[in-house]
Each structure stands twice: as structure tokens, then as C-alpha cells.
Amino acid sequence: MGSTSAAHHGGVGRRDLIKRSAALGLISVPAMSLLSACASGGGDGQDKAKAGKKTAKNPLGVNDSAQMEFVLFDGGFGKEYAEDATKIYQKDFPKAKVKFAATQKIQSTLQPRFNQGNPPDLIDNSGAEQMDMGVLVGKNQLADLTPLLDAPSYDDPKKKVRDTLRPGIVEMGQFDGRPVWILYYAYTVYGTWYSQKALDSLDATYPETWDQMLALCEKAKKKGMAGWTYAGKYPYYIPFSLYPMIGKVGGRQVLDAIDNLEPNAWKHPAVKACFEAYYELYKKGYILKGTPGLDHIQSQTAWAKGKALFIPNGSWVENESANVIPADFDLAVSAPTGLDGSDKMPFGTIWASGGEPFIVPAKAANQAGGMEQLRVMLSEASSKNFTAKVKSLSAYNGGTDGIDLTPGLKSGVAALEKAGSNVLNPRMQDWYVQLQKEKIGVSGLGEMMAGRATPAETIKKIQGFADEAAKDTSIKHYKHQ
């Protein structure tokens, strides 16, 4: 919920990814109530801006005198990067009025406008009040962004926008079939985050097998440092390192089956092995005492203070914890530790995907303008500006040359290079928000990691939750294509 981030948190969030919302930020609002109204149509809509003339400089045919309204989630990434991009739009279309606003209350501010048929032209649908993407898509509330993706890129007319994006961005915006409903602007690297300085102080390298992980945690314990901590109040953070471990051990098809809500998907041997591995961290006393009672900020602060070596998180953690991470911390991220040499995918297999979901409403008065603003943001200059200001990669595949990358960002770029094509993108957190957060996260993994349920009991419980969701006709179901 980057995306970043908002989404990942429980109350105040930040990017809780979807849901996050509900989102990369996240949420405690029940997913359906959230959107029930938003999805209910209503209103006669607003007058659409007349199309402008398509030219090489205006490939989407923006009406150069029509107002363009942009509402941004005001979270961990701030609003300056977006304001800077609106200035470029204004320069390109000097006769147009650009209306820009930033808020943390996306759903309560914008749901009434969706109902009345007069939504803004571009929305960063993130944070704790994120509108449920699955519902928006299912109720035909969003414009298909294919025209944007097939337009010439802002920098190079010979390249389409889609050809300038990082792996998985286009697919993440799809739900069923070819239309692309969402453009995730931030690019989040998920994994196991740590201090290279702390690792060096233990005379250790990052563990590639679980036996090495347990040995390192024992070594840390003897020095008075816990092996792990996590957001105990929001245990849906645990999957940021656990899901890619499952994919590494069993292959990406195991995660696809979980996302597809297939019968017995959670009973796969790779799931069992990884749950048992994580449970061993609890059993051997390698989890920081009190972790189940900590929220994301408290756990990140304890980790930054050297009380624990590892924390599962996303790349927004560098910006979000900047005020508590020591200057010499040497922040780093690694792809998850695997089990052993029998794993189906190599060490370096990582979860990386889009965060900060941008949408253009189907009833927007100036759809072309909303898409053009996104085209501007996907330029090299805007991407570099974003990365320099918020310590996060963007969806634009590049944009880091000449920027003095922070330690975490540099480590994330290196992790992506090491992963190559072995990048996983579990969709549970944006397809089924409540299932992922409240059920798999809080009721399942949270109970197991606190020692209140065994791996076998947890797998049985989570499979039951997944089966309930699969049979629930009130929610739209999605499948990997």
C-alpha cells in the first residue's frame, strides 16, 4: 500500500496499498461498506470536455482550454512531486485551469462525487480511506487506461508509454482481461529489511537458507538482539517476506493458486514448510518480546534502534522511518531467505510491484486531461523528481541516473537487478483486501506468530477463509490470466 505504504498500515496509514486501504496503506474499514455507495452509480454525470486535436505534442487529444482536476492522497510521499507535475501540464496547456487538491480522506471526500457523477479527472486512490478497487472495476466506475499506455511516451515519441514501465505495472492494473484500470505510480520492493552495519557487527552475511537464518538469529540473541520484529497489530506485513518465500520454495504457481482462491491452495507443501519455518522464529525465542502488541511505527522504531535485526516491510519504510533510522544504519533490503537448495526459484527471487494507485474515473469530465497528467508524470524528469524527493522508485523504468540514491533505494535497485525476471507479484492484497488484512493477516498469521496457533491450525483456518471468499457471490472474483 507504498505505496506504497499508506496502505499498509492500520490506522493512519500511508499507502496501504489497496486496499489499503485499505493499497499499498491500509485500513480497518470493511471493504464492502467502503464502496457500496461509491459503486452505486446515480447522478446524471457532468458535461464532458470536447476533444482537442491530436498532434505529436498532444497525442491524447486533450482539450487545451478544459479544466483538469487532480486529487492526490496526502500520505508518506507528500504532495510536492505531484504539484511539480501539474506545473508541467499547466505549461503545456497554458489556457487550461488546473485544479489540484491533496487529502487523506479519499473515500469520504470522493464517494459522494462518484455517486453524483462528477468525479475528478485523476485520483491517487490510496491511504486508509482508499476506495476498493475491485468494486470500482466491477461497477464500471473507471476508465480503461489503454489509450494512455499506447500513446507515445513524453520523452520519446518512438516509444509507447507502456514500453517505459517497470515489470508488472501493466498487469497490476488489470483485473480480468486486457483493459488496464489502474496505473500504480510508485514501485515498491518488498522483503526483509535490515541494517548492514548490524549484520557486519555480527560478522555475518545475509542468510540464503533457513538453517543459516536460524543460526544468525541465535548469534544475534547471544548479543542481546532479537532476530525479528514485525507490525504485530497489523500482521498483514508478515507476507511482505513470507509470500515471496513461498513463491521461491514452491514456484510462482503456488502464489497464483492462492490468489485464484483455488481449493486447497494453502495446503501446498511449500506453504506448510514456510509457515513452519516462520513459526520456528517464535518457538526459538527469536522474535522481539512484545512484538504482537506493536503497530508498524513502533516495530520499525524498535528495529531502527537495533533491538531486532530483521523486519518484513516495503521500500516506503526508508521515508516513513527517516526520523528514527540512525545516519550510519546503512539500510538494506534482501529477497527472502529460502529453505534450501531444493527451492524451485533461485535466491534473489523478490516481490516487487506497483504502489500508489492512480485512476481516471469513467465519468470524469476530462478523461484525456487526467491521462495526459499521468503521461507527464511518467516522463524521466518527473520520475527523477519523485525518486529524489520521496526515496522511492517510480513505475518509470529508469529515472535514477544522476540521483544520489539513499542506502535503502540503492539496495532496492540492486535487489531488483539481482532478481532479474524472478520478480513475484502476489495479488491478494489488491484483489481481496479484507481477506488479506483481517483474516489471513490478523486472524491467521498474527495468531500463529504470537504463538497462539500452530502452523497446521493456521493453514486450516486460512484455507477456510479463502474457501468462504471463493463462495461469496457478493464479491467479484479475479484470476491470473
From TrEMBL:
Keywords per UniProt: Signal, Transport
Presence of the UniProt keyword Transport in the record: yes
Domain of life, per lineage: Bacteria
Major localization listed first in the record, in broad terms: other
Signal peptide: none
Pfam families linked: SBP_bac_8 (PF13416)
Subcellular locations according to the entry: Cell envelope
Keyword hit for rRNA-binding: no
Family designation: Belongs to the bacterial solute-binding protein 1 family.
Classification via NCBIfam families: chitin_NgcE
Name of this protein: N-acetylglucosamine/diacetylchitobiose ABC transporter substrate-binding protein
Source organism of the structure: Streptomyces similanensis
